[in-house]
Design a protein that fits this description.
This protein has a three-stranded antiparallel sheet with strand order 3-5-4. Helix content is about 55%, strand content about 10%. The protein folds into two domains: about 50 residues, no CATH class; about 80 residues, Recoverin, domain 1. A hairpin with an 8-residue loop joins strand 1 and strand 2. The protein has eight helices and five strands. It is mainly α. The relative contact order is 0.13. The longest helix is centred in the middle third of the chain and has 16 residues.
């Protein structure tokens, strides 16, 4: 019974229940109320949309090109990029088919690679772009 419930919540069928799949299934709980109030979030809905799936497929198909471009512009020896670097590279790839991707959508696309504790002296969030490309390969590449 638990496995069946897991399969229902795992919308992307990738063996992982992330926060978006959980929120898509159960919604958000508003705080400060003695009764539970579930409210849907537009980004959780978008991340389970056809557009998001198509964007994921484009990223998966072009991951070698994206990695090469990010390797060239990122100064770190590790596979770490800033949000602005990712936005520029991914935006260039996706603009032809999807137009300009809004910031909230771009942040949803790259959040799988977010590094919670950026190195000292860095500004803003940092992302492991190899992880991002790997996740999109696993989720969206043709078998």
């Amino acid at each position: 019974m638990i496995k069946d419930l897991f399969d229902i919540i795992d919308i992307r069928k990738d063996g992982i229940i992330d926060v978006n799949e959980w929120q898509q299934t159960f919604g958000y709980v508003n705080e400060g109320n003695s009764k539970l109030t579930l409210k849907s979030n537009h980004m959780a809905i978008w991340e389970n949309s056809r557009e998001y799936q198509r964007i994921g497929t484009v990223i998966a198909k072009n991951r070698k090109l994206l990695k090469a471009q990010l390797d060239n512009i990122c100064t770190s020896e590790e596979s770490v990029a800033s949000y602005e670097e990712l936005k520029m590279v991914l935006g260039n790839l996706l603009r032809g088919q999807f137009g300009n991707i809004e910031d909230d959508k771009m942040k949803a696309i790259v959040k799988v690679g977010e590094i919670l504790k950026a190195s000292e002296g860095s500004i803003g969030n940092r992302y492991d772009y190899v992880r991002i490309l790997s996740v999109y390969k696993d989720r969206h590449a043709a078998p």
